[in-house]
């Protein structure tokens, strides 16, 4: 039996509810795949601030680095919005990403045929969409210096070094090799020097991947093309802030932000988390969609632990659940045969995953 140590960060809002469903599915899979998961819960976000005065206690970093992978729920909420920036849950998250060195954020946007009517776009535009946004996660304007504010002025700086662009470009090309063999690199090279460097370096690295076709697109055009003709994209390679924006947009092609998982990877460890936030408005009601988190657990099995058979079982179970018409509240209007709670959804997927 193989045993893995998983650091669990439940976080705030719906975080605890959705993580509980992901571990339910993982434990079900463990029983049929001869695996064992050893969970260690660590604190982060608003709850960490409330309990320790720090949204990212050092212990969380240490224990995460000491695990095989990190499974992450969601953090943040209005309750902590008035705190000084460095005490806010979001600052904890950014520091966490930096400390763990997870520079590559992989955000797949795949349209499930079963939910083709759930998108605000026409079925013929989105049927078959399968995009992987590869977003640089620990550089760019989120981290660049100088930054600051006075009463009269606020400023941040978008900085990328050659080395940062090189490593994320390699990730994108390698991922493209396993998929549709296309990379579209997103920038604003017509205006920003940092983007011109981005474009030049990505082009340079592309020479090592002759089997992958590289194109470049300005970010404003990319935002438009995503809703005009999303099927043109395979891998979208972006910097930090452009990827933040475009991945939210891409998620909506799929109907609900409650469906989409993500992986953040680097040299040391991976963090697996849904792309949605902590949704404090629906927390504690048992109506959150746990699918994004369960799919994140599947990405964790595949990318961090090399357990692709177990991951396939989960992915198939999610599809089957949707196909049979089980829906959480967010998707209740779309071909639902039965509307279920967060925990019922988790149980159905867990059950199918073992079949
Ligand atoms: C995301 C989120 C975060 C980000 C926030 C919460 C700091 O929007 O993971 O996309 O901007 O990276
Ligand atoms: Mg975001």
Textual characterization of the structure:
- The chain is an alpha/beta fold and 355 residues long.
- 41% of the residues lie in helices and 20% in strands.
- It contains twelve helices and 14 strands.
- The strands form three sheets. A ten-stranded mixed beta sheet has the order 2-1-3-12-11-4-5-10-8-9, with helices on both faces. It has a two-stranded antiparallel ribbon with strand order 6-7.
- The protein is globular, with a radius of gyration of 20 Å.
- The model has no long low-confidence stretch (mean pLDDT 96).
- Magnesium ion (MG) is lined by residues 244, 248.
What does the secondary structure layout of this molecule look like, with pairings?
Elements (H helix, E strand, L loop, with lengths): L1 E10 L3 H19 L1 E7 L4 H7 L5 H8 L3 E6 L14 H12 L3 E7 L12 H4 L3 E7 L11 E2 L4 E2 L6 H16 L4 E6 L5 H14 L6 E6 H10 L6 E4 L1 H14 L7 E5 L4 E5 L16 H14 L3 H16 L2 E2 L10 E2 L2 H12 L2
Parallel strand pairs: 1-2, 1-3, 3-12, 5-10, 8-9, 8-10, 13-14
Antiparallel strand pairs: 4-5, 4-11, 6-7, 11-12
Helix pairs in contact: 1-10, 1-11, 1-12, 6-7, 8-9, 10-11, 11-12
The chain binds 3-isopropylmalic acid and magnesium ion.
The site of magnesium ion has 2 residues, from helix 9.
